[in-house]
């Protein structure tokens, strides 16, 4: 006896901003990138947190960054990373190191797989999902 299975039509999961992460998501909705900066450390911080790492200073402030960066690493995922992504096709999952220092997990878009190189310059792409009320940050080659 043979059984068939049809993948459910699941929607891509979307982030849910919290009071702590809201400034990041609000900036993305305006097609800007704001992350935390610690004056006591003299460093930008990402992911959002209530206290500076290492020092536990409560001096974190939100500052706008360019979002430009360098491809730190990537993987081409030919299989869905979860059932929600079954209809997405191949995804290029990546880590971008912002010029300001922190690394950011994302997806690469608008690039042929053969043209991807670790160390290549990348720029932000703002992907609006109005039905979810969220903007996602992705990256593409700078040139």
Automatic annotation (TrEMBL):
It comes from the Bacteria. Residues 62-126 form the ChsH2 C-terminal OB-fold domain. InterPro entries: ChsH2_C (IPR002878), NA-bd_OB-fold (IPR012340), Thioester_dehydratase-like (IPR052513). This is OB-fold domain-containing protein.
């Amino acid at each position: 006896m043979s059984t068939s299975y049809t993948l459910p039509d699941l929607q891509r999961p979307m982030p849910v901003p919290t009071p702590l992460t809201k400034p990041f998501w609000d900036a993305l909705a305006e097609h800007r990138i704001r992350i935390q900066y610690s004056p006591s450390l003299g460093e930008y911080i990402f992911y959002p947190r209530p206290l500076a790492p290492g020092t536990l200073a409560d001096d974190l402030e939100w500052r706008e960054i360019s979002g430009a960066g360098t491809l730190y690493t990537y993987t081409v995922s030919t299989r869905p990373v979860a059932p929600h992504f079954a209809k997405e096709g191949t995804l290029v999952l990546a880590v971008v190191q912002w010029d300001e220092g922190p690394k950011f997990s994302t997806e690469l878009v608008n690039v042929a797989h053969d043209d991807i190189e670790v160390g290549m310059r990348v720029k932000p792409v703002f992907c609006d999902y109005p039905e979810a009320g969220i903007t996602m940050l992705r990256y593409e080659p700078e040139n």
